[in-house]
Design goal:
The protein has three helices and no strands. Helix 1 packs antiparallel against helix 2 (33-61) and helix 2 runs antiparallel to helix 3. The chain is an all-alpha fold and 95 residues long. The longest helix is centred in the middle third of the chain and has 29 residues, at 33-61. The chain has helices at residues 7-21, 33-61, 67-86. It has one domain (7-20, 31-86).
């Protein structure tokens, strides 16, 4: 259940790292922004996908209460579906 809210933290850390790796002396420019933003979206998608996997593992193990891993599975699966349906991962999505 904690992987869903931590997706924003993971994306923020990925963006900070991506911005630090840009080799421009003046920092990041607008031409690099779509690639850096895509890095954050992919980091969020990876964290949410890890939430789906951990929910499935918790359900297979029979963790109690049963509703908690089920809620995590439904929530994270919905979010992954939204990411793929709206294609948030494509370059230039936010333009």
């Amino acid at each position: 259940m904690l992987l869903t809210p931590s997706a924003m933290l993971a994306a923020s850390l990925a963006l900070v790292i991506a911005e630090a790796l840009v080799d421009k002396p003046g920092g990041i420019s607008m031409s690099y922004f779509p690639r850096v933003a895509r890095t954050g979206v992919l980091a969020m998608l990876a964290c949410i996908t890890a939430g789906v996997v951990s929910a499935v593992i918790a359900m297979v193990r029979g963790e109690r209460p049963r509703s908690l891993p089920l809620l995590g599975l439904v929530t994270n699966s919905f979010l992954v579906g939204v990411f793929w349906y709206f294609e948030f991962y494509k370059l230039g999505f936010g333009q």
